[in-house]
Amino acid sequence: MTVEKNDTKNKIQDAAERLIIQGGYGAFSFRDIAEEVGIKSASVHYHYPTKGDLGSAVMTRYINEFSAQLPNPNDESLDPNAMLEGFINGFKAKIVDHQNMSLCTMLTADKHILPDEVSAALAAFYNVKIEWLTLLFMRLASLQEVQAKTQTIQFLATLHGASVLVQATGNAEFFERALSYWRMVYVK
Question: Which domain of life is it from (predicted)?
Answer without folding.
Answer: Bacteria
